[in-house]
């Protein structure tokens, strides 16, 4: 796992060739593929995928390689994972999807990739927060526009009744409120 985390491709290849289990997780459940995806180590991601690593294996929090790549803004890693059949809407234990995280971080290219791959634009976390809500909260105009263009439910409220528009107004994000 540490070889992929650090991007040491030759060591990762050596371990794979020696028969190391490509899906061996650490104490928190992080696999070499998840570590490489989180750090944007594209060559290690490619190596793990071709070695047959489980692209949807999650850690103890439900954190998958795709979620990791999307959270950190690693577009090429996310593309490879989706081509390798990563589940686009596989959520963490709290219900957050890769699209939610991309919108929270303002990673427009990744949000577009996920939308094009069929991600649900309205899938909410356990507290009712949707990708549109978080984009409005964080002031990510382009992500909000992308979601609205994909027919995201503009009035879908959190459990406490707050809507994306309410949050944009509360945070002072004029362009989103328009």
UniProtKB/TrEMBL annotation:
Keyword Manganese part of the UniProt annotation: no
ANK repeat ranges, renumbered to this chain: 28-60, 61-93, 94-126, 127-159, 160-178
SUPFAM superfamilies, alphabetized: Ankyrin repeat
Keywords: ANK repeat, Repeat
InterPro entries, per database record: Ankyrin_rpt (IPR002110), Ankyrin_rpt-contain_sf (IPR036770)
UniProt name for this protein: Ankyrin repeat protein
Organism: Emiliania huxleyi
């Amino acid at each position: 796992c540490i070889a992929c985390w650090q991007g040491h491709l030759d060591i990762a290849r050596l371990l794979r060739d020696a028969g190391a289990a490509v899906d061996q997780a650490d104490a928190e459940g992080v696999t070499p593929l998840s570590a490489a995806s989180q750090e944007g180590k594209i060559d290690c991601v490619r190596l793990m995928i071709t070695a047959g690593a489980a692209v949807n294996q999650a850690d103890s929090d439900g954190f998958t390689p795709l979620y990791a790549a999307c959270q950190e803004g690693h577009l090429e890693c996310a593309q490879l994972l989706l081509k390798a059949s990563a589940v686009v809407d596989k959520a963490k234990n709290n219900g957050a999807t890769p699209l939610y995280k991309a919108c929270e971080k303002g990673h427009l290219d990744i949000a577009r990739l996920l939308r094009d791959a069929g991600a649900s634009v309205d899938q909410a976390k356990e507290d009712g927060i949707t990708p549109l809500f978080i984009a409005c909260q964080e002031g990510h105009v382009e992500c909000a526009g992308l979601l609205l263009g994909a027919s995201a439910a503009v009035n879908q409220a959190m459990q406490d009744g707050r809507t994306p528009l309410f949050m944009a107004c509360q945070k002072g994000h004029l362009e989103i409120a328009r």
